[in-house]
Amino acid sequence: MKKVLQQLKQYKRNTFLCIGFTTLEVIMEILMPFVTAIIIDRGLEVSNLSVVYRYGTLMVVMAFLSLIFGGLAGRNASTASSGLAANLREGIYANIQTFSFSNIDKFSVPGLVTRMTTDITNVQNAFMMIIRVAVRAPLNLIFSFAMCLIISPHLSSMFLIAVVFLVIVIGTIMVITLKIFKQVFRKYDDLNASVQENVTAIRVVKAFVREAYENMKFSKASKMLYDLSVKAEGLLAFNNPAMMVAIYFCIISVSWFGAKYIVGGTMTTGDLTSLFSYIMSLLMSLMMLSMVIVMISMSMASIRRIGEVLNEKADLTDPENPVTEVTDGQIDFNHVNFSYKRGSGKNALSDIDLHIKSGETIGVIGGTGSGKSSLVNLICRLYDVDSGSVCVGGVDVRNYDTEVLRNQVSVVLQKNTLFSGTILDNLRWGNPDATDEECINACKAACADEFIDRMPNGYHTQITRGGTNVSGGQKQRLCIARALLKKPKILILDDSTSAVDTATDAKIRAAFAKQIPGTTKIIIAQRISSVQSADRILVLDEGKINAFDTHENLLKTNAIYQEIYNSQLEGNGDFDQPA
Question: Can you give the pTM of this predicted structure?
Answer without folding.
Answer: 0.65
